[in-house]
Design a protein that fits this description.
- This protein is α/β, with parallel strands linked by helices and 307 residues long.
- The chain has three domains: 12-86, Arc Repressor Mutant, subunit A; 98-166 and 269-303, D-Maltodextrin-Binding Protein, domain 2 (3-Layer(aba) Sandwich), CATH 3.40.190.10; 168-266, D-Maltodextrin-Binding Protein, domain 2 (3-Layer(aba) Sandwich), CATH 3.40.190.10.
- 40% of the residues lie in helices and 23% in strands.
- It has twelve helices and eleven strands.
- The protein has helices at 12-24, 27-34, 38-52, 68-86, 107-124, 176-182, 207-211, 229-237, 247-250, 276-279, 282-297, 299-303; strands at 57-60, 63-66, 98-105, 127-134, 148-152, 161-175, 195-198, 221-225, 242-246, 256-259, 266-274.
- Strands 3, 4, 5, 6, 7, 8, 9, 10 and 11 form a nine-stranded mixed sheet that branches. It has a two-stranded antiparallel sheet with strand order 1-2.
- Helix 7 links the parallel strand 7 (195-198) and strand 8 (221-225).
- Helix 1 crosses helix 2 (27-34).
- 36% of the residues are buried.
Length: 307
């Protein structure tokens, strides 16, 4: 009598390896997260594919992407992860979150919105670590190791979710000392007589921010330009010219005076980008909720008030 060989069952550890690769898109990043080496990751994925009888990953332009079978396996892996984490709940039954969340955001958002939001999460979940890369750029079209991206302007992304966090206002500011020497412009036409403190035009990749100065003063000459908005604020305070600054940053400084408040106000939107499988991670979801709450709390400061 012949015996049909048993179909190999997927190893739960191999499923958790797939979970790490599926979230990061890279073997090396998954290896770092799990404390394994690249070769072990590759071997585990091969064993899982053998057990499931098909490919779970395919090579994409920006890293590894899940196949349909891989997404099914990832759902099973998330169930395993959730069950393991449930064992780590405190005596009150509240789950303690842990893990590394990697995000990128603009300088101002990182400092004044992300930092306090993340700190609140960490007070309840001290094992959550957040790495923030500051950059003013478009959302990545390719797979990256980032869990969250906060960008300015509606992004065009694939295999990712994007939703608006909230608006903020850019306005013109000058220092008291600058206005005392050069006078305050009385109309948009007068702005051509003043230098502009803003981003480096040739390095600015964000359409909404690139368009902003052309709406009111395309003839303003450049003064100090930088990829960092904190440089914009400090250069404006140092009387380098008139700065196009986020209200929620400039209004913190009493020595900065808003210029042409009724004529110049550019509203732009922060968008959050993440992948569905990443958002299902409890620690990522907690950070996203905190960011949304912080934006809502600061809505008045973000939009600015006309003096």
């Amino acid at each position: 009598m012949s015996v049909t060989p048993a179909t190999p069952r997927p190893n739960p550890d191999d499923l958790l390896v797939l979970l790490a690769v599926g979230r990061t898109g890279r073997y090396v990043a998954a290896a770092d997260e799990l404390g394994l080496n690249h070769t072990t990751i590759s071997r585990r994925i091969a064993a899982l594919e053998h057990a499931l009888g098909g490919r779970v990953l395919m090579r994409g332009a920006g890293g590894w992407e899940l196949t349909e079978l891989g997404r099914e396996a990832l759902a099973a892996a998330e169930t395993i992860e959730s069950a393991v984490r449930a064992l780590g709940s405190g005596t009150d039954g509240v789950r303690t979150l842990e893990g590394v969340v990697r995000m990128s955001a603009t300088d101002g958002f990182s400092a004044y919105l992300a930092a306090p939001a993340i700190a609140r999460v960490q007070r309840d979940h001290p094992k959550v670590t957040v790495e923030i890369i500051t950059a003013t750029r478009r959302a990545s079209l390719q797979r990256s190791s980032l869990d969250i991206e906060v960008v300015v302007g509606k992004p065009q992304v694939r295999r990712a979710e994007a939703f608006p966090l909230g608006d903020y206002t850019l306005a013109l500011y000058a220092s008291e000392s600058y206005l005392a020497v050069h006078g305050s412009p009385e109309s948009a036409a007068d702005l051509s007589n003043h230098p502009l403190v803003y981003f480096i035009d040739s390095m600015l990749q964000v359409d909404d921010l690139d368009l902003a100065p052309t709406l009111f003063a395309p003839t303003m000459r450049e003064s100090i330009s930088s990829t960092n908005v904190f440089v914009h604020v400090e250069a404006t305070r140092a009387s380098a010219g008139i700065g196009l600054l986020p209200c929620f940053m400039a209004d913190r400084h009493p020595d900065l005076i808003r210029v042409l408040p009724h004529q110049v106000a550019v509203r732009v939107t922060y968008w959050l980008v993440t992948r569905p499988e990443t958002l299902r991670r409890p620690e990522v979801a907690a950070i996203v909720r905190a960011l949304r709450s912080q934006v809502s709390t600061m809505r008045t400061q973000l939009l600015g008030t006309i003096p």
